[in-house]
Amino acid sequence: MNLNEIYTELILEQSRNKRNRRELENPTHVELGHNPSCGDEITLQLRIVGDIIEDISYTGKGCAISQASTSIMIDTVKGLSKSDALSLCNKFISMVKNEISDEKELEELGDAVVFESIKNLPARVKCAVLPWYTLKDIIENDKVKGSFIP
Cα-flanking dihedrals φ and ψ of residue 23, to 5°? Predict the structure, then answer.
């Protein structure tokens, strides 16, 4: 099995993973992320206590890439401070836009690095970055409950 097959398998596995796809009890922040060009739609639900993302989940629908990217992002940022999570959002977005490729820097993204080659598929970049832009928006603009009522 070559590296691309391993990455493809991880993306498919994560897109089917139901662990992070759930309603969150007592979220402090809720925001809709929508990609009108392909119909991907996710709602991120976070519980932020102090400065820490104590819990995060999502609901929604979309292609395997958007769903896997969302699930992997949740695993990556859960338990982090808002500033650390924001830093990873910016790093992920820069990676898929081919603005950074330093392996040491990308290691911080953990499993999310599987999306590095998505830059070669421009039509799918929006699918991969959807959850990361949505989380970035929540953190930067303090999108609390009420900014989007499901």
Answer: -80, 135
| 61-70 residue pLDDT tens | 988 889 999 9
Q: Is residue 148 part of a domain?
A: no
What kind and span of H or E run contains 83?
helix 82-96
Domain that holds residue 80: 3-141
Whole-model pTM: value is 0.89
Q: How many CB atoms lie within 10 A of CB 52?
A: 15
Cα–Cα distance measured from residue 139 to residue 34, given in angstroms and rounded to the nearest whole number: 17
pLDDT at 19: 85
For residue 150, being part of any structural domain is answered with no
pLDDT in tens, 98-116: 998 788 889 999 989 988 8
Total tally of structural domains belonging to the chain: 1
CATH no. for residue 10?
Answer: 3.90.1010.10
Exposure string of 56-94, with b = 16+ CB inside 10 Å and e = fewer, is bbbbbebbbbbbbbbbbbbbbbbebebeebbebbebbbe
Residue 147 lies in a domain: no
